Amino acid sequence: MSGWLLIIFLLLLGGLISSFGDLLGTKIGKARFSIFKLRPRRTATLITIITGSLISASSLPFILLFNRQLRISLDELQNKLQDNRTLLSSLESERKNLEGTIIQKEDELTQLKSERKNLEGTIIQKEDELIQLENNIIELRSGKVVISSGQSIFISEIQSDKRLKIDTQIENIINNANRFTQKKVNPNIDEPGNILLLRKNHIDELKKTISKGGDWIINIKSVRNVLKGEKFVYAFPELTKNKIIVLKDEIISKAALLDKENNITDVRNKINFLLASSLAEAKRRGSLVNEIKLKSDSVKKLQKYLKNNKGFDFEFELVSLRDSKTAQPVIVELEVSKLVK
Q1: How far apart are the C-alpha atoms of 159 and 216, rounded to whole Å?
Q2: What pTM value is reported for the model?
C-alpha cells in the first residue's frame, strides 16, 4: 500500500471510529447509562476518551497489516537492537579484558621498574668495586698494601685437653689477632677496636673440630689485600693439626761443595740453596714457618773449617737442633765434612 492510500485509510478509519464513539457517547448520555458509579454525562465522556484511544491503538496494527515495508523495517529494527545488545555485551567483555590486560601490564611495568632499580644498584655496586679494585692496584703499586690476600695474619696453638675451655682459648686468640692486626693496619690509633672480622659459622666449625680432641694450630688469613688505614680486615681461620715436622738431630738437606767452588760466593750460594731446600721440605711436611733459622755461629765455624782444610771436596748438611712442630721455628746448624775422593 502506498503512503497516500495509507493516510486516506487512516483518516477514514479515524473518522469512522470517532463518529461511532460520538454516536455511542450520545446514546449512552440519553440512556443515562452509568459505569463505575459515575454520572451519565461523565460516563459519556469516558466512552468518548476510550474511543479516541482505540483510534490510536488501532492505527499501528492496521498500518502493519497493510504496509509490508513497515513490518520489514520493524523487524530490521528489532534485529539491529538485538545486534546492538550483542555488540554492547561483546564490547563490555572486551573492555573488561582490556582493563585486566592494562592492570597486568601495569604490574609487569612495576616489576620491570623494580628490576631496573635493582640492576642499577648492582651496576653501581660493581662500579664501586671496580673503583676499589683500581685503587687497590694503585695502592699495591705504590707499596701501601700492609696485608696481602691469603697472607697469614696470626698463628697460634690450641689444645682441646687443657683445663681452659675451648671457647675461652679461641676468644683469646681472636683478641690477640685483632690487636696485632690493628697495630699493622692502623698503627697511629691507640684505642683498641674490632678491626678483624671473621664469620660466625667459621668459628663454630673450629670449635666443633677442636672439641674432638688433639693439638691444633689456628692460622688466621686475610681474605683480600688490606691497605694501610682501612677500618676493617676480613679474614678466615684455617685449622691444621699440630704435629712434629722435624726431629732433633735430623738431617733436613745436604749438598756437596767441590774444591774448585771453594770461594765466598759459591759457599754463600750453597748455604742459601740448603736453606731454601730445607724450607721447601718443611712446608711439604705441613710447617707454617716462612724461613729456616740458621744458628748464628755456623757460618763463622764453616769459614774457619774451610780455611784450615783447603784442597778437599766437602759435604754440607743442615741438621735440626730440636723437635719443631707445625707453627714452631725450624732451627738448624750447618755441619761440614770432607768427601773421600
Answers
A1: 6
A2: 0.50
